[in-house]
Design a protein that fits this description.
This protein has 84 residues and is an all-alpha fold. Helix content is 70%, strand content 0%.
């Protein structure tokens, strides 16, 4: 996969109880960081495809990112913290 699937990551975070404001913030920060990594790799002389692969390898895959976000209970929504 040459690009992270931001929509799937967003859906998985919401499905797993992460508060929407943290989902938005996380996706924004990760996509910005990914773009910076990709631009740096491109400046280092890599092709667009190679730069994308390098940036993804450095940022991690969706499962790893989701696992890291899920490990922080303070990011969970009130509904998931206190279900009826």
């Amino acid at each position: 996969m040459s690009e992270l699937n931001w929509q799937k990551l967003r859906f998985d975070m919401i499905k797993n109880g992460i508060a929407p404001k943290y989902v938005r913030r996380t996706i924004l920060e990760l996509s910005s960081h990914y773009a910076e990594l990709k631009n740096q790799a491109f400046k280092d002389g890599l092709s667009d495809f190679e730069a994308s692969k390098r940036a993804q390898r450095e940022i991690g895959d969706e499962a790893t990112i989701l696992e890291e976000v899920m490990s922080k209970p303070e990011l969970r929504s009130l509904q998931s913290k206190y279900p009826r």
